[in-house]
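Attaching the record inline, Q. Sequence:
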Amino acid sequence: MDDQQNTLTYEIIKAAVAGEKWATERILKHYDSYMDELATVKARQPDGSVRTYVDEDLKQEIALKLLEEIPNFPLKKAERVAKEETDGI
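Structure, as predicted:
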């Protein structure tokens, strides 16, 4: 059920492009685990072991890039696709 609640819809993306804070928060939540994966690094410790952790600074950089790109989302193309999907039902 959590996956269903965290699904990105055309309406959510459209609201995020329009600058709605709740929508951008939903997008960030949707991509949170993926950003964790991208920001996971391995560091060799002095004793020779390897420590794996999420680099929070790197994760913040990734999140900022995502937020910067939201206004550039191709809404017209997405609108056509969404319309085709609803017409095909």
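The two ends are 23 Å apart (CA to CA). The chain has one domain: 2-83.

More tomorrow.
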